[in-house]
UniProtKB/TrEMBL annotation:
Species whose genome carries this gene: Aegilops tauschii subsp. strangulata
Protein name: F-box/LRR-repeat protein 15/At3g58940/PEG3-like LRR domain-containing protein
Leader sequence residues: none
Location of the F-box/LRR-repeat protein 15/At3g58940/PEG3-like LRR domain: 118-307
InterPro entries with a match to the protein in the record: F-box-like_dom_sf, F-box_dom-containing, LRR_FXL15/At3g58940/PEG3-like
Length: 312
């Protein structure tokens, strides 16, 4: 007959303690990296786990600041501004890794927040910033711009982070003089998004020229891009949505892009581009969503397609 299995030893009394010890035995910089993946309000509360964790938030955790995570801690936009100022001005041993500001208007009553934003972006905490997202919140976000209206100005300090790897800018107007001077460089930038900016395409061209290893370029509803020229040795993916309320895009020229694999255009309708030319893109295998009602010519290499609008 089968023998009864020996009784199972009870779990050691110190098993739970051992599990905690394994976690706390990780190097402090590893623990700090784990904490930085949490929303900022939750990351700041990790000091309550144990006495040994109290110093991790300040001394070993790269700052991951997203204003959307802070609204539960601030009753008004002005409270939120003050809270972010306190965070960026507090002494920290570890610099910020990621900052995202997207829920604040430029003005609050008579208070102009532009100088505050500019001061934020000059903070030493952001010296080695890798991931940056900035967009003004519009009061009437769904309303089209009036003739001649521009988005609020982007503080020049927002373009000073040479350590960036990912960046997006939205609902703003870039400082023309700084870009024209050629003094802006992003030697590590691999992904750039421009959304609803009111500059001309010259701003886009300057940003591409300042980003020598750019891989992903995303353009979303920018108002005055009329003749867009994409020339880059490193861009692999290019995606664009032309704004239906902006100027008609006359031409999209993609030239000298040996790494380009994907071009996607969305929902152009009657806003263009009228002409698309893709020259010297040997790796291109996706050229998608070409359904503009104003498009007349699509050229890929030596192949030229005439596009006719069906009026049936």
């Amino acid at each position: 007959r089968e023998e009864a299995a020996p009784p199972t030893d009870p779990a050691p009394a110190g098993a739970k303690k051992e599990e905690v010890t394994i976690i706390t035995a990780l190097p402090n910089d590893v623990l700090g990296t784990i904490i930085s993946a949490l929303p900022i309000d939750e990351g700041a509360r990790t000091h309550a786990i144990s006495k040994g964790w109290k110093h991790l938030w300040r001394d070993y955790t790269p700052l991951n600041l997203d204003d959307r995570d802070l609204h539960k801690m601030a009753w008004t936009g002005d409270n939120l501004v003050d809270l972010i100022s306190d965070i960026l001005e507090a002494p920290r041993e570890v610099r910020a890794r990621r900052v995202s500001i997207s829920t604040l208007c430029r003005h609050s009553g008579d208070r102009d927040r532009y100088p505050i934003f500019d001061r934020w972006f000059r903070s030493k905490v952001l010296d080695r910033l890798e991931d940056f997202h900035f967009s003004y919140q519009r009061v009437n976000n769904t309303e089209p711009l009036q003739a001649g209206e521009t988005m609020p100005p982007l503080p020049p300090s927002a373009l000073s982070f040479s350590s960036l790897r990912v960046a997006s800018f939205g609902c703003c107007h870039f400082p023309e003089n700084i870009l024209a001077s050629g003094g802006i460089t992003f030697p590590h930038l691999v992904e750039l998004t421009l959304s609803r900016i009111t500059n001309s395409e010259n701003t886009l061209h300057a940003m591409i020229a300042a980003s020598p290893i750019l891989v992903n370029l995303y353009l979303h509803r920018n108002y005055h891009f009329r003749r867009v020229h994409i020339s880059s040795q490193t861009i692999v993916r290019f995606r664009m949505f032309v704004d239906p309320d902006g100027d008609v895009m006359e031409e999209l020229l993609i030239v000298n892009t040996p790494s380009l694999e994907e071009v996607m255009l969305w929902d152009q309708g009657y806003c263009g581009p009228r002409i698309i030319r893709v020259l010297v893109a040997p790796k291109l295998h996706i050229l998608g969503c070409l359904h503009s009602d104003m498009m007349s010519t699509v050229q890929h290499g030596k192949t030229i397609l005439q596009v006719y609008m069906y009026l049936g």
